[in-house]
Amino acid sequence: MGFTKYWESAKISFNNNLMYKADFLANSLFIGLIIFIFTNLWKVVYSTESGIIEGFTINMMIWYFLLTESIVTSPGKVIETFGEEVQSGEIAHQLNKPYNYVLFKYSSNISETILRFFFTFSIGAIIALTFVGGIIVDWKTLPFIAIVIFLALTLHFCIMALLGVFVFWMEDAKALSFLYNKLVFVIGGMILPLEIFPPWLAKISAVLPFSYVAYHPAKLFVMFSWDSFFKVALTEIAWIVVTIGLIAIFYNFFIKKLSINGG
Amino acid sequence: MKAIIIKNLTKEFKAKQKEAGVKGSIKSLFKTNYKHISAVNNISFEVEKGETVGFIGPNGAGKSTTIKMMTGILFPSTGEIKVLDYNPQKQRKKLAYNIGTVFGQKPQLWYHLPAIDTFNLFAKIYDLNQREYRKRLNRLIKVFEVEEFLKQPVRKLSLGQRMRCEMIASLLHNPKVLFLDEPTIGMDIIAKKRIRELIKILNEKEGVTVILTSHDLEDVEQVCKRLIIINKGTIVYDGSTKEIRNRHLKYKVVQVILNNKVSSLGLGLKGVKTVFKGKFRHVIEVDTSKYSIQQVVKKIVSKHDVEDINILDPPIEEVISRIYKE
After folding, report:
1. Do B97 and A262 touch (CB under 8 A)?
2. Confidence band of B17 (pLDDT split at 50, 70, 90)
3. How many Cβ pairs closer than 8 A exist between chain A and B?
4. Entry pTM
5. A262 domain residue, yes or no
6. Which 3-state string (H, E, C) describes chain B?
7. Which of B35, B73, B94 is the mutation pick for testing A, counting most A CBs within 10 A?
8. Is A239 part of any domain?
9. Residue A79 is part of which domain span?
């Protein structure tokens, strides 16, 4: 019986988000526009190169970017949500229920995330197919890529939830959210694959959790190998376990510092 | 049997301070000043099972902070809390199965979905047996008369309708203690009356212990036999609601708006004090132990052309200052 409440939370959040179809579509179309701009940018870059940059063809580069963008933007503004709930005092209703607060947030967020990922990736895929074409993917590997993407989305949530827990104490989420976003953008490999970085930076970035949110899953999608699959999936799981441990420690610490606004 | 035991409870907050203007903003970049705010200051009280207790005080008195500590959401700086023999901070989840909360200003229903969806979610959250849940839900739907708008999105409901649904959401798991934090805020008189009646039914028929906060004295008077008045974090009164009525609420405030300019109402009644004299608007205080409100209103209407009349209890701040004066 213990987990049905989390499943139910995922379902109700999914239903609630279906009410925002126009929002979803607008958000995905905007990301589609970014993908379109990057497609043209890469076309210019590739026209001066031999057709391959650090092992990536233009098609691989575009599909890589489509996947990183879809993963990173799909969960929405998790850290800000923690901040808003603390600032508005709404957290009072979330904390007085018999469930694990962070797990409950995860279950409602993940269903929304999957919905948004589906929208964004589909629109981006249409743009990529129209302007540069597809890439060669072995269809049998897709379920395994899906596992890695799911783990990446979970890790992405866990890191944001960890920073969100700090909001109990700091109250303002903007600084943390800005910092994390920029880390994922750059050293997480969202904009560019790590191969393009100076080797020392690429080496450091490749072991940090941010690259397991964006770079590693996207690279696996465009250059699948079983070795990489196992390595990426297991490392993602390891980082998820580490962040859950840190969430538990800091949650217990910062919950005592929480002051609820209003009333 | 005690439902709640509070001993020497204190809650202090650290609030950031910043001087006004650009200079203050630049200064705050380098040095943050904090001010210690004592929201609740060494309070103690006990509540018996099945009691209805009104917890009132002006804004910022510490009512909501105390409720949030009793429900395990906030941690006290010092002191001891037991609710149904649970320590709310250490046994928050276990306690949550046994208490219900309604925060008037913070909705818990999903805004874009019908209330029934939130009820179904709460049934899972509280691990309710489906058959028992259906039975209880049907009973609550009847008592609270919400059937006709149960399937409408919450955003389409009136404040009174929404609050009735909020109360059902907090009662589905059959809580032993119900915390109601400003449940009637922003409501019209009819909706307020309905909510008060429902709270009384819950207490009388189900034996639910009710803790009600409000800054509306009338709310509390209608529902609670016992009253705790809190001001600046300390308890200034803990006793029967009747006693407060007899000692401090023996007068009413009457606000009259006239159609003609008059310098004074000129009622010539002893025990009727003029509080405000305007051209059209006049406010008087009526000692109800000397004159009934009916007598005074009759006299006003017979002497003047009245556009509007309002009869109010004195504000809570006034009652507190009278208690201090004693």
Report:
1. no
2. confident
3. 88
4. 0.82
5. no
6. CEEEEEEEEEEEEEEEECCCHHHHHHHHHHCCEEEEEEEEEEEEEEEECCCEEEEECCCCCCHHHHHHHHCCCCCCCEEEEEECCECCCCCHHHHHCCEEEEECCECCCCCCCEHHHHHHHHHHHCCCCHHHHHHHHHHHHHHHCCHHHCCCEHHHCCHHHHHHHHHHHHHCCCCCEEEEECCCCCCCHHHHHHHHHHHHHHHHHHCCEEEEEECCHHHHHHHCCEEEEEECCEEEEEEEHHHHHHHHCCEEEEEEEECCCCCCCCCCCCCEEEEEECCCEEEEEEECCCCCHHHHHHHHHHHCCEEEEEEECCCHHHHHHHHHHC
7. B73
8. yes
9. 4-256
